[in-house]
Amino acid sequence: MSAALLIDIILWGTVIAVGFVVWRRGPKLMTASFREGTMSFISVVPRIALGVLGSGYVAAVIPQEIITGWLGPDSGWLGVLTAVIAGAATPGGPVIGFSIGAVALKAGGGAPQVMAYVVAWALFAFQRLLLWEIPFMPARFVWFRAAVSMPFPFLAAAIAMAIGKP
Amino acid sequence: MSDQPPKEPAAPADEAAEGEASPRRARKPIGWSLIAIVVLVVVSATLVWRRDGIDGVLDILFHDLKLFGGILPRVFAGCLLGAFVAEILPHDKVSRALGPNSGLKGLLIGAAFGAILPGGPFTAYPVASALLTVGADFGATIAMVVSWTLVGYGRAIAWELPIMGTEFTLWRLVISLPLPLIAGILGRLVYVRMYTARDADE
Q1: For residue A166, which residues of chain B lie inside 8 Å, CB to CB?
Q2: In chain A, how many domains are there?
Q3: I need a labelling partner for A98 at 20 to 30 A (CA). Which of A24, A82, A120, A143 fits?
């Protein structure tokens, strides 16, 4: 069984289980919240379309070599800083983010720099913020969360330097 | 984190959609973010066209259309889940467990919840939004979102482990473990300074 299928099963299983709880509270409640979920789906679809169809082009024009070139082991804190910026600027899903990280490691990138890159990418890749987080969350929350997360890639790099791992 | 079940491997296609994909909600009809994205996409598509010709443009389009079709059902599931969760979570209990006065325990609950949440961004964000609606504060919600993105088992198992290797992934996870809590604490501190202080002035 493929992992994708497994995910779908877990996801829809959760939806059905939670939906069942709602239904137990009253079929009317179920109808109302089903309609609400459907409405938010409909309103979100055009934006997803733009994001999905558009981000392929954005990813295609950002040369990955430029990103990996910045992350050398002797780059120190400047390297960490560029890694954070690169992480935030990396478009695309986890395949792209982790692949760039892996290439950087293989190409001789420093572990703390790559750590900072991966953590920054996970926390505030601009594309995920704009295209996934802002549509679903209040914008004020998103910017607040991103601002609060700002120190963490540096912290992660500092810990990696201190313990000498990975 | 003890209740984090690594038994379910996770998230490929859903996560693949994450960055290569994207939504926006009609709550704010057309904002600057949307305009910026449209401009970015048009410029990028033009660059691809000049570099690779019309074939390059179409290649990417078809690939992304397939991706789009694949993630739509998942987005629908995420939207339903968000609506259901908002419906069944008892407001008073959520604000006690995850509200501004929930203390470290609230942040821990938020972080644990984020770590075990199934699915990709299409579930994490609707559910986080639902939590905010029913009384969780910024701190606990930040802990949840940061935990989902940094500690969540889905991405780590499906993507990071095979691509980055075991050693890097494990160390990355270990180093990341305290971050959701710190983010929640920081979020709460800053939020209180920023907003309640201002309210008191008024």
Answers
A1: 167-168, 170-172
A2: 2
A3: A143
B22 contacts A52? CB cut-off 8 A = yes
Beta strands per DSSP E along B131-176: none
pLDDT tens digits along B34-52: 677 788 788 888 998 999 8
Chain A residues within an 8 Å CB radius of B121: 128, 132-133
What whole-number distance in Å separates Cα of residue B86 and Cα of residue A136?
13
Check CB contact under 8 Å for A7 and B48: no
Q: Test A160 with B8 for CB contact under 8 angstroms.
A: no
Instruction: Dump pLDDT digits (tens) for B114-145.
Output: 988 876 787 888 889 989 988 899 999 999 99
pLDDT tens per residue, range A75-99: 788 889 988 988 888 876 777 788 7
Residues A106 and A121 in one domain: yes
Cβ burial B135-170 (10 Å sphere, 16+ → b, else e): bbbbbbbbbbbbbbbbbbbbbbbbbbbebbeeebbb
Cβ neighbors of B52 (< 8 A, separation 6 or more) are B59
The shortest CB-CB distance from A44 to any of B75, B84, B168 is to B75
A160 and A93, same structural domain? yes
Which one of A24, A45, A61 terminates a domain? A61
Domain assignment present for B158: yes
C-alpha span between A129 and A153 (Å, rounded): 16
Tell me if B149 sits within 8 A of A123, measured CB to CB: yes
Query: Is the ipTM above a cut-off of 0.90?
Result: no
Give me the number of domains chain B comprises.
1
The predicted structure's pLDDT at residue B128: 92
Would you state the pLDDT for residue A3?
62
In this structure, are residues A91 and A125 in contact, taking their beta carbons and an 8 Å threshold? yes
3-state secondary structure of B191: helix
Nearest CB partner across the interface for A122, out of B28, B79, B149: B149
Set of chain A residues whose Cβ sits within 8 Å of the Cβ of B72:
45, 48
